[in-house]
Amino acid sequence: MPADRLLPSTEAQDLIDLAKEIAREELAPIAGKYEETAHFPREQFRLLGQAGLLGLPYSERWGGGELPYEVYLQVLEEIAAAWMSVGVGLSVHTMSCFALAHHGTDEQRDRWLPAMLEGGLLGAYALSETHAGSDAAALSTRARLDGDQYVVNGTKAWITHAGEADFYTTMVRTSDDGGQGISCLLVDAATPGLSAAPPERKMGLTGSTTAQLMFEDAAVDADRRIGEEGQGLKIALSSLSSGRLGIAACAVGLAQAALDEALEYAKGRTQFGRPIIEFQGLEFLLADMAATVETSRAMYLDAARRRDRGLPFQRQASIAKLVATDGAMKVTTDAVQVLGGAGYTKDFPAERYMREAKVPQIFEGTNQIQRMVIARELRKG
């Protein structure tokens, strides 16, 4: 049951059709095998770059597509529906470009952004630390200015693409002034003193590498600082607001894939002489799954349209992330239930979808943090 989309232009429809074709022909056929062997899909990211899908919301001047977030997110949803690890990776890469695209100088953008947007480079976003996850202002990775370089020491945790990325948008402490003492560095992956730990052994998204990122007297040129010293936390939080919409879109794509799998199975499986989709217990379950998918899609599109119009959207982004990721967890769990015993086996992708649905409730700010953001905005009245 393909998503029923209301797109703003024929160009947007053509882009969605391209994303569907890539998803169907290049991603879906190998997703299960790659996930089973924890194989990182670097070639697939290069393919997305060649197709012009790695820089959709950014300026054409630097190689982007200059398309509304409303369109970018629906492309992202189609990619995630075929392969969640690639969808999440696309979202992370887009967020990793945000600091340079929105807070860098023209000279910095001219120098680095084209390769980031055209597929030559893959990005990662390094904010979290073992003791500074939800409390980002507590990070301790320190950068000390020494002449025309920052010397960086510390460890980042839970970094998507760690050890695979070509650049890391990294938040570091440049003074002891709490949240005002954080700065943003665009770190080249080849920087001496920078290394990645072995990948985490995860429940799902095993094709997406996640690891610690370690800085040991890593020297980063001072001209790689994005924005002024002390602006890093502000940059990080503005990046996350947009990144949460990316995760919401990925979660909807995953839920759509689970719904499609459950529908196909329910139409083909017979019991008591008729397809099980005709039994009211399953009809209602599938109807609730469809309602959850479409409600979640509407939430992220509403937030995206606000963003595209320059309106405040932080509260709506948190609501979309909360609703879509909680919804994906429910829909994928219900998909396993529709398939019954078959859903608990690796012969069908439903069990993988269910495992993959858990982590979107955690990253880009846990859903408990989203509730705090929403409540804070409500208090402002």
TrEMBL record:
Transmembrane segments: none annotated. InterPro entries: Acyl-CoA_DH_CS, Acyl-CoA_Oxase/DH_mid-dom, Acyl-CoA_Oxase/DH_mid-dom_sf, AcylCo_DH-like_C, AcylCo_DH/oxidase_C, AcylCoA_DH/ox_N, AcylCoA_DH/ox_N_sf, AcylCoA_DH/oxidase_NM_dom_sf. Residues 10-119 form the Acyl-CoA dehydrogenase/oxidase N-terminal domain. Its cofactor is FAD. The lineage of its organism: Bacteria, Bacillati, Actinomycetota, Actinomycetes, Pseudonocardiales. Belongs to the acyl-CoA dehydrogenase family. Residues 230-378 form the Acyl-CoA dehydrogenase/oxidase C-terminal domain. Residues 124-217 form the Acyl-CoA oxidase/dehydrogenase middle domain. It comes from the Bacteria. This is Alkylation response protein AidB-like acyl-CoA dehydrogenase. It holds the Pfam family Acyl-CoA_dh_1. Keywords: FAD, Flavoprotein, Oxidoreductase.
